[in-house]
Each structure stands twice: as C-alpha cells, then as structure tokens.
Amino acid sequence: TSLFYFFLNVYIFFYILKLQCMEGHSGPTYESMQAVFDLKEFRPAVNLSNPTITNISFTLYAVLGVNEKTQILTTFLWLRLYWHHEFLMWDPDECDGVTRLSLPVKELWSPDIIIYEFVDDDVSQACPYVYVNHTGHIRWDRMLRLVSACNLEIFSFPFDVQNCTFTFGSYMVSPALTFKEMSGNSKRYLAASGEWELVALLGETSILRFGIDEWDIIKFWVVIRRRPVLYVVNLLIPSSFLMIIDILSFYLPPHSVDRASFKMTLILGYTVFLLIMNDLLPSTANGTPIIGIYFSVCLALMVISLLETVIITNVLHHNSMKYKEVPHWVKIVVLKHIARLICYRSPENLASPTKPDKDKPNNLNSETSTLVYISASCLPGLALPELQQICEYVGELRSHLRSLQKESELQDQWCHVGYVLDFLLFRIYVMLISCYALVIICMWCIWISQG
Q1: What are the sequence ranges of the domains in the chain?
Q2: Quick count: other Cβ atoms within 10 Å of Cβ 218?
Q3: Which CATH class is domain 2-227?
Q4: Which residues form the Neurotransmitter-gated ion-channel transmembrane domain (predicted)?
C-alpha cells in the first residue's frame, strides 16, 4: 500500500508539475533534480503502460585486431543512445532560457543494451555524462571497445573479406539513423585506418521471443576487407623472386656445373624465409589459407626440382660410367616421342646418338694392317716374333681406342636422354608455377575490382 501511494505521489507531482526553477538562477533547482535522482532504479515513465523506446546508432571508428585462431574481432565503436525521460522536463522560460543540461549517467536510469557477440570486458574509457534537453530527451555517447565472436574465413588471405554480426538487444529498441547513414559515417572514419576497410554496413530489426518475453533486436552486418599490399610486398614478391631464380637455375648446364648445390642453397633460403614470415600468416584450426598452400607447393616444387637435378645428374654420369647401353624403349619414348612433344632440337654433335659409326672399326683394322705392312717393309731385319709383338701392341692400342669410342658414344647417348628429360621436367615445372601464380594474380584482380 505504501509503495502504491509512493508511486501515486510521484505520478501527481510529475504529471502536474515540472522541474522547478528558482528565480535568479539558471536551470532547475537542486532539490527537484535530487527527487529525480532518487528514482533512478525505476523506468522514467509517468504512466508505466507507456513504453520507453531506446533509439540506437553507432559509428565504426577502427578495427583494432582480428584473431583468426580464436575467431575474435576487436573493434572500436562510438555508440549513441537516445531515450525519453518523462521526469526531466522543465520550462525554459522559467529557467532563464536553459534548454540543455549535462547530468551524471550514474544518477539516472539507463537502458539495458545487450550485445550478444560480446566475449570480453569493455576496457574503453567510460563517458560519465548524458545530455538532456528541456523536453526530457536524453542522448548518451558511449565509447565501446567491442571484443566480439566472428566466424572468420581466411581461405583467401590476404585477399579476404570478413562478414561479422553485431546484435543489439533490449526490451524496446529501434535504430536512430538509417543503416545507410550509419554505413556512410563509419566509412568516413574508417577510411584512414590501417589494415582493414569497411565495405558495407547492413542491418535489420526483428523481435526475439523467449517464452512469454519479447525482445527487440537490431542486427548489423559489418563487412570489412583486408588491404593486402603489406602481405604482397613482404610475402608474395620475395617468394616469387626465389621461385624465378629456381626456374632460371634450369639453364645451368647439368653436365658441367653442380646445379644440385645451387638448388639446395635456394631451398635453405626459402625455408628461412618461411620461418621469418610465419608470424604474418594467420593460423586457425578451421582451414588453411590459400597463400599457405601456395608456399607449401612452392617449397615442394623446389624439392622436386632438386630431385629432378639428381635424376638428370645420374642419367648423365652414373649410367655412362658403367657402360650401359641406352634401352630400346628409352630411345623410342624419350628420344623420339618426348623430344617431338617438347619440340626439342638436339645439338649437332648429338644429331645421331643412336646410330653407331660402323666404319670406324674397319678403319682401325685397315690402319693396323697398314702399320704392320710398313713395319715389315721398313725393318727387313726384324724377326717374326718381334713382328708378332708389335702386332699385339697395335691390337691393344686398337682395343683401347675402341673402348674410348664406345664410352664416348654412350656418353653422347645418355647426355641426349638427360637433356630431353631436363627440358620436359623444366616445362612441367614452369607450367605448375605459372598456374599457381595465375591463381594469386586473379584473386588480387578480383579484390581490386570489388573495391
């Protein structure tokens, strides 16, 4: 009963009378303001059946951080709330023309605004005052450091676009500005920010029901896009330089230069580069960015390039030193079909690697016979055993020359096979690198066209 009479007295006082002003003083009196402060626990409505609607708008000032591993977005907002306080009304003519006051927010009733995506405490500077005009309308500007949960997609990093939601809820809430106006204000302030830029700020209002309770909610979609110049300069361009050097290393002659040592040095340098730049790459358990896949594939291609060099070196030296003939199927597949496929033109000294010179053994025999004949005619005093010994020496010399000739032919044949394989693997290597480079370039062009 006492509570009923209390509200009845408050109702009569604020319905019939307004805030009192003292003659000779500006603004309402302290006593009348204190009476309002004593009612801060109650909603400021003379008739409790009348709703107190809170109008809300915000401006996105900065994107402070994006943590892909924990899926958290940290932003800085300037939140502005409007509502009507029916107890804070006065007549400006009676109050020396005062139409606006600033009052401590802790002494007044304030609406309960909940952000559903909030996952951490607000550590921003609090704004202690609200601004009230003589009609009872209040404006409260809040600086808000919003740490919110967001489903971050990093597959297209550093050309990614993130879409995060901010959901504001209360019993009676509505937007103070249109979503287009809020988006324009946010773009104007966020344009000077560092890594991120605002693409769009969209929103809608709806009603959320919990049993018999109904909550008004305003859902905002904040679409931000990363500026990739930093990552292109620090990651893609150095990686591209190393890959170009690795491609040019194929022009080193494999039979006279230690190409394998050069490629191993490149792989070591690329590994150190990835370790240094690892902090710039996002990490998450949900997926791997395509740039990480690109670096892994580039490293794998470098390893494949080194293995290709090892194979070519083995073909050029190991098989020829063992005097192994080139298999017939290798001649058909490599020297005929693959060479024709890659438009390979053999050098003049390797023009006929598979066709042996059949006249050379006959030449050796004729030269040996001539040498024996000359020896017999010029040295008539020599006995037959001496002539036989000379013939044996000449036969050994001929065998040695034939072995050198055979070794030279085998080296030419295996060298021909090695060069054909080297040209084939080089073209495959360049094709794979070009495909990955085109993917990155296309993604960058799409990012620029969306801007």
Answers
A1: 2-227, 231-450
A2: 21
A3: mainly beta
A4: 235-360
